[in-house]
Amino acid sequence: MARPARPVRLTPPAWLTAGLKPAPTPIPWAAVVRASVALSAPLAVGLAVGQPAYGALVSMGALSGVIGDTADAYRMRIFNIAVPQLFGALGVTLGTLVFGHGWLAVAALTLVALLSGMISSIGAVASVSGLLLLLNCVVGAGLPMPGPWWKAPLLLGVGGLLVLALTLLGWPLRRAAPERAAVAATYRSLAELYEATGTPAYDEQRQAVTASLNQSYDLVLARRTRQHGRAPNLVRLLSQLNVLIPLLEAAPAAHLRARLIGPLPAAIPAAVRELADAVEEGRTGTPALDLPAPERPAEKAVDHALRHAAAVVHKTDPDPYNVDDRLGRPAALRVRARRAARAVLFSEASWRYGLRLALCIGLAQALVSLIAVPRSYWVALTVTFVMKPDFGSVFSRAVLRAAGTAAGLVLAAFVLSEVPRGWWDVPVMVVLAALIPAFSAKGYAFQTAAITPVILLLSDTLNHQGFDLVMPRLYDSLIGCAIALIAGYLLWPESWHTRIGDRLADAVADTAAYVERAFGGAGDQAGRHRARRKLYRDLSTVRSEFQRALTEPPPTGTLAAAWWPLVVAVERIVDATTAARIRVNHGAPAPDPAEVLAVERELRELADGLRASATLVEVRSELPGDESGVLEPLRQEVRAARAIASPDLR
C-alpha cells in the first residue's frame, strides 16, 4: 500500500518571514512630531530663500539625527546625536573630495569602510558614528554637492543640530525625568513579576524585568559617570534602583513558594507599585506598609526586602544606607577610551568585521565604476545598512532590506509621479517623516519602507530626476543585497557556522561558578549581587544571540531552535540557585557541601559537552541529595537541563 503523499508546503519558512511581523510596540508620538518638524522645516526654509538643494541637505542631516535618536536620557541624547554628526560631517567631506575620481573614490571608500567597521565594535554611539561616517562618505562620493567643500558638511551638521535642539527642549523642565521614569517602570515591572509568581507567565515576566533593570542602570550610570558627587538626585535614583535587587532576588523563592502553596498576597505587588509611584513623583516621608506577617523563609525574604526598599525610597537622604556603590562605579572616561582603542586595534572580531565591510564596499564601488549605473551610490548605501552586525543577521537583513525597499518604492512612485515638486514637498515630508520613528519600532523591514521614500524625495530635490529614480533604486538595492549576501555572508564561515554553542557553554560555566559563589562561601554579599547581575545580563545577551540566530537559514537556524530549550533551562537554574540562597539567608538549613559540588560538576560537564559537540546528548542525572533541602528545586532544574536532547546537526 502506497504511503500518502505529504502535503506540499506553500508557506515560506518561519526563519525567513520572522522579520516581516510587526513588533507590538507603541507609537513614540514625541519622536513622530520631532521627525516631522526636523525634516520638513528645512525644506520650507530652502524653498523660501530660493535654495531648495540647501534645504534638502539640511533635511538629510536631520534624517541622520532622527535615526540616531534612540536614547531616553537627555545627556545620552547629546552623545547619541552630536557625536555621530561629527563623524557624518567627516564622511561627507571625504566623499566630496573624491567625487568623480574613479578608482581613487573606490580606494577611499574601501578604507573608510574598514575604519567604520572596526569602530562599530566599541558600543552603540560608536556604531552609529561608524554608520554615518560611511553613509555620508558614500553620499558625498555619489552625489554632486554644492561648493565649496565645507558647505555640504555644514548643512548636514545643521540638520543634526536641529534634531538635537528639538530633543532638548524639555531638558530645563524635566532634567532627570527620563531616568526617574525608567526606575519607576522597573519597579512596576517587578510588581507584575510578583503577580506572575506560581504561573507559567513568570519566566517571560522575569525576562522583562531583566531588560528593564538593564535599561535603568544604563541610563542612571551613564549620567552618574560625569555627575557623581554633584547630583544628589542621581545618587538617590541609583540607591532606589540598588535596593530593588534584593526584591528581585527574592522573587525566585516567592515563585517556588507560590507553586507549592498558592498565590502571594495581593498586598505585596500593590506595595511595590506604591513604591513605583513614590519614585516617579519624588515623594518622601514615612512609608505606610500593610503586609501580612511572614512565616516561611521565602516570605521573610520578600518582607525584609520590601521594607528595606520602602525605607530607602521614602528617605530624604539620597543614600541613607550607603548602597550607592553596591554594584560598582563605571570606569573613568579616559580609562574607557583606552579600553575601546585597545579593543579596536587588537580585537580579531573588530578586524574581521572591518575587512568584511571593506570588501563589500570595495566590490560595490568597483562594480559601479566598471558598469554604468546611474546614481550608483544606492548600491553602497544598501551594503552599509545590511552589513551592520549589531543590527541583526546579515542574511535576514538582506531579505528584509529588499522587501522594505520594494514596499517603500511603491509609496515613493506615487509621490514622485503625482505630487508636483515645490511647496507640495513640505506637507508630503511632514507625513513621510512621521512614518520613520513610527515604523522603526516595528522592525527593520518597516523602517526601510519608511526611510526609502524620504531619501528618494530628498534625492529628487537635488537631482530632479522624478519618477526615473524609482526603478533604478530597486535594482541598486537588489545588487547591494546580493553583494552583502555573497561577499559579506557566504564567504565568511563564521557567519553561517554559528558560535552560539560556545556562548551558551560560557553561560553554563558561569552558572556553575555562581552556584559555587552562592554556597561555597567565596565572596561577600555584594560580590554575589554583582555576579548575579552580570550573569543575568550575559544570559540576556545569549538570548538575543539565539533570537537572532533563529532568523538564519539552516543549519544555524535549525541549531538555534534545537538548543533554545536549554537557554530557558539555564535561566531557570540561575533562578533556582538564587531562590535557594535567599531561603538560606532567611532561616532554611544550609545545604551539604557535597550536594553543591555535585550540582557544580553536572553544570561543568554540560558546559564541556556543549563546546565539544553540536549534538546535545541526553544525560539521565541522578544527583542524590536531601529531597526536603533547599537544593532540591535546583537539582530538579539541573536534571531537566541534562535531559534535553537534540538531533544530530553536524
Write a concise keyword list for the protein shown above.
single chain, mainly alpha, 650 residues, 0% strand
Which shape, going by the Cα principal axes? globular
Helical/strand content category: mainly alpha
Please tally the helical runs, counting DSSP H or I stretches of 4 or more residues. Answer: 27
Helix content: over 70%
The ordered H/E elements are: HHHHHHHHHHHHHHHHHHHHHHHHHHH
Largest sheet: none
Which runs of at least 5 residues are low in confidence (pLDDT < 50)? 224-230, 320-330
Alpha carbon gap, first and last residue: 34 Å
Mean pLDDT: 79
**In angstroms, what is the radius of gyration?**
27 Å
Number of strands: 0
Question: Gist?
Answer:
The protein has 650 residues and is mainly α. The protein is built from 27 helices and no strands.
Describe this structure in words.
By secondary structure, the chain is an all-alpha fold. The chain has 27 helices and no strands. Helix 2 packs antiparallel against helix 3. It starts with 13 loop residues before the first helix and ends in an 8-residue tail after the last helix. 47% of the residues are buried.
Helix-strand blueprint:
Elements: H1 14-17, H2 29-48, H3 52-68, H4 74-97, H5 103-119, H6 124-142, H7 151-167, H8 171-174, H9 177-196, H10 202-227, H11 232-242, H12 244-260, H13 267-281, H14 297-314, H15 333-346, H16 348-370, H17 377-386, H18 394-418, H19 425-440, H20 444-463, H21 470-490, H22 493-496, H23 500-519, H24 525-549, H25 556-585, H26 593-612, H27 632-642
Helix pairs in contact: 2-3, 2-7, 2-19, 3-4, 3-7, 3-20, 4-6, 4-7, 5-6, 5-16, 6-17, 9-10, 9-11, 9-12, 9-13, 10-11, 12-14, 12-25, 13-14, 16-17, 16-21, 17-21, 18-20, 18-21, 19-20, 23-24, 23-25, 23-26, 24-25, 25-27, 26-27
